[in-house]
Known about the structure:
The protein is 29% helix and 25% strand.
Amino acid sequence: MKRLLLASTLTLVISQNIFANEEVVPEQSxxxxxxxxxxxxxxxxxxxxxxxxxxxxxDKALKGLMQELDAHSSYLDKKASKEMAIQTQGEFGGLGITxxxxxxxxxxxxxxxxTPAFKAGxxxxxxxxxxxxxxxINMTLDEAVTLMRGNPQTDITLTLVRKGELKPLEIxxxxxxxxxxxxxxxxxxxxxxxxxxxxxxxxKVTEDLEKIITANxxxxxxxxxxxxxxGGLLSQAIGVVDLFVDSGVIVSQKGxxxxxxxxxxxxxxxxxxKLPLVVLVNEGSASASEIVSGSLQDHKRAVIIGEKTFGxxxxxxxxxxxxxxxxxxxxxxxKYYLPSGxxxxxxxxxxxxxxxxxxxxxxxxxxxxxxxxxLKKHLEGELEKVGNTKKEEKVIADENKKVITGEDVLxxxxxxxxxxxxxxxxxxxK
Length: 430
């Protein structure tokens, strides 16, 4: 059976019937359970107040079953299956927001770069209270996603609870077609360093990243930015690590039975660079991002910088109900384990160097000492700040701008720290 594995937010809930001192007859027990289900469906079909068709009853039963397993297992009807296929190809409609369930609340994992949610100021770990006028209490993930998606240029309002804010925030935006450039690169001005940004792990991430690395042979070090990357395909996370690591386990997954463990190992043939590497993460880095950063950390291949990650460490498989894959179930089948044996589920990856987001803190007398050539424009920039409101901080995402300047570095404390540490690594490796 062909399976599409996703690195997705899940909490594995396993219910086991323990029969002490009883002889269990599995086939009889299965028959009785299935008979009970059939009787309930038949009773609903016959006596329910509204005229409801059998197919609709079965669909509702399937949705309820998957919802009771955990917050992220779900039944995907034809429409939902089509949306899933479109999303993993890197283009879909909506807000550009990835959500998950955290402590029972509908929570933003991260907004995707340059999407309506990103531009409107939605942030990782925001809790969504309402979608338009509909409360999200007891709402499933699938229901929330359905409400947030819609025709391009239609209005939508999210009511959010954000840490540090005294009252809920109402953020208005317009839906749009989400076209993701998952991988792009920039050079860091006059430093001979390459900045690599992965916004999500779709089907072409490893291929695109390999092309960029191969085309930039003269750089001395790499910065891999996985901030606010909600994850994606497991195969792509493995492929990205393999570009930097030439041997050993990248990640393993263990299911309910010990014999189900599956290990994914690096190959020297796929390794493309051994240049010094730092990886940027934050609380919006999840799933595949945590596999990449955690694996590189365990292999001591990179220095991880930023904030503790989200903590999505379990495996989902999309399993077809029909041969044509028109209907599927999305089911938790295992948990991820990093090379050291640790899990990221609910714990996340703790960076080697903790650095808070924000602007670079500088002494008044040193605030312009980046480059002599940039002194004039920095002076102008500082003067322009007087009387202006503070702009929303964000990960660098202007894909048309190919060079990161001193001004960009000043606006991003985590990136500034990464450059300093990467320079140190380059000196140590000489």
